[in-house]
Amino acid sequence: MNTAPLHTLSVGTAGPRIAFLHGLFGQGRNWSTIAKALAGPSGDGARCTLVDLPDHGRSPWTQEFSFEAYAASVASTLRAVDEGPWVVVGHSLGGKVAMTLALTDPSLVAKLVVVDIAPKDYVNLDRFTGYMDEMQRLPLGELRDRADAEARFEEPDPGVKAFLLQNLRREGTSWRWQANVELFVADAARGQHSVIADFPFAPGDVEPYAGPVLWIAGSESRYIKDEDSPTMRALFPRVRQLTVKGASHWVHSDAPAVVIEALRRVLAAPA
């Protein structure tokens, strides 16, 4: 199991420890706005650690995807900063990693916040295959500069385009993807056997996580459904749900003020 240190960014100098985990093709810095707000102008509101998950950003790549391995890498990285326990926040893929961490290493997680994802099998990665195809089609060897990459990249949604192209990194005169695109493409090719689309535990497989859990959903997202609640409550008995009106799957980008206030309340509440 790969437990190599992951790349992190730190925001804040004092206050409770809070770690942020991003989604597929994201990076820790996607949480910068939220982290800076929680830390406050003097930096003493919270000590935030923004993690690049394995196969993302500046963190090491792996040979095979595993939620348990991802969680172990996050655990060793956080413990190298502080033995904890930590408040752990995860969105989408990062939410599944955060839930896995809480279930397998509960002593490290004081409180858990899961953003717009459920502990279930989403069957496949079809919703991401178009993005992966676009990333593979981009002729990295021909790119002159980032503007050229933006012009050639065929994603019509400017927000999605910017999100995906944050993974493009220039090294000298060549370009490469920071995200381990080939690994994700291979997992997507498994179809209904995708590991990333699945979740490693079902009720009864592990002891439920005993800490408090905030489950944030976007009202315009399809990632969390009413029928997901029994499984979520079986694995996380102290869960409470917050649905953010008008927000899509990227809740923290669509409604940062709401998410910031919710996280402030989580930090202030007793464990």
Automatic annotation (TrEMBL):
| Keywords from the named record | Hydrolase
Outline the extent of the AB hydrolase-1 domain: 17-256
UniProt entry tagged with the keyword DNA damage: no
**Pfam families on file:** Abhydrolase_1
Q: Which GO terms describe its molecular function?
A: hydrolase activity
Q: Which PANTHER family match?
A: PROTEIN ABHD11 (PTHR46118)
By what name is this protein known? Alpha/beta hydrolase
Q: Which organism encodes this protein?
A: Knoellia locipacati
